[in-house]
Backbone:
């Protein structure tokens, strides 16, 4: 049996969901067995985001056969890749990449990647796994083994199919995070829609309904009730919330920088607007809120059986 460990920084978000989904996929496999995901101790760094403490990280890598590292502009990612290579492990890397212009510190991010992380990837990584077209093109420019795989959803999601609220709009994300684009919603006409926002932060509209620290069951129920999910982000490498909404038969309006659209193609149930274009955003809401979702095609695109087989091929090479 080959043991797999997933290394990622212990913060909530898309990377954490990605690793948890893979653990769920391989926790009971007869030949490739994922170890329980651990929060390896880190040392914060103002310059390099964080380092891992050496001993616990090395001990984890030592006992693994396959090391699947997740991370981007942090020295901890470089550490994990380098230790795994030195210990002669099979090294798989998923970057969860964002174009440099969308980082908080674009110039520093580009310098760190070019001078430190890129050479490490070229030297240490067997296969780079990507989750959208942009990062696929980017990593193919300097690495010969790059494979794009759609993100995987949790199949145990229980659906209750309550009646849809025909004017209910749902937003899920960090409200104070400028990347999430909630300011688009503040242009919605008052009393035209019932707007629900899931996430911590300070809303600027008193007529919006906020949900904080709700359970997965409660979130699923909101997805099912909503007539529309909006993802007006400045950039999303994928969008887990968009996939969850689509699976609940809820159409999605997203900015052109939300890259789950790379996998959706002509699938019915979503539309795209240009980030920052408020008029287009408002017009597209009225169009998208009436759309039907092709759930059969959604389930086919993100079929966990097919996706699992792609990972097995990578782990076995």
Residues:
């Amino acid at each position: 049996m080959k043991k797999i460990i997933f290394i990622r920084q212990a913060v909530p978000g898309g990377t954490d969901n990605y690793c948890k989904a893979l653990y769920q996929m391989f926790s009971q496999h007869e030949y490739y067995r994922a170890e329980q995901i651990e929060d390896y101790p880190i040392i914060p760094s103002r310059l390099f985001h964080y380092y891992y403490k050496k001993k616990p990280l090395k001990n984890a890598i030592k006992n693994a056969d396959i090391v699947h590292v997740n991370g981007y502009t942090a020295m901890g990612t470089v550490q994990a890749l380098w230790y795994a290579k030195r210990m002669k492990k099979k090294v798989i890397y998923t970057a969860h990449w964002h174009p440099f212009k969308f980082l908080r510190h674009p110039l520093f991010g580009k310098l760190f990647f070019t001078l430190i992380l890129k050479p490490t990837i070229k030297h240490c990584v067997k296969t780079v796994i990507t989750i959208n077209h942009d990062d696929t093109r980017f990593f193919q420019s300097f690495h010969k083994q790059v494979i794009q795989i759609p993100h995987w959803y949790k199949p145990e999601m229980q659906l209750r199919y309550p009646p849809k609220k025909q004017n209910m709009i749902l937003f899920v994300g960090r409200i104070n995070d400028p990347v999430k684009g909630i300011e688009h919603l503040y242009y919605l006409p008052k009393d035209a829609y019932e707007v629900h926002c899931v996430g911590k932060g300070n809303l600027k509209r008193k007529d919006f309904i906020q949900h904080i620290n709700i359970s997965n069951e409660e979130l699923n129920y909101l997805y099912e009730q909503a007539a529309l999910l909006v993802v007006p982000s400045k950039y999303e490498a994928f969008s887990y919330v968009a996939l969850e909404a689509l699976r609940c038969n809820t159409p999605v309006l997203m900015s052109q920088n939300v890259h789950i659209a790379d996998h959706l193609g002509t699938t019915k149930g979503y539309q795209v607007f240009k980030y920052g274009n408020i008029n287009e955003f408002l017009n597209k809401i009225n169009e998208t809120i009436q759309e039907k979702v092709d759930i059969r095609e959604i389930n086919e695109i993100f079929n966990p059986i097919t996706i699992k087989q792609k990972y097995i091929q990578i782990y076995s090479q």
Observations:
- The chain has two domains: 2-152+303-316, 168-300.
- The chain has eleven helices and 14 strands.
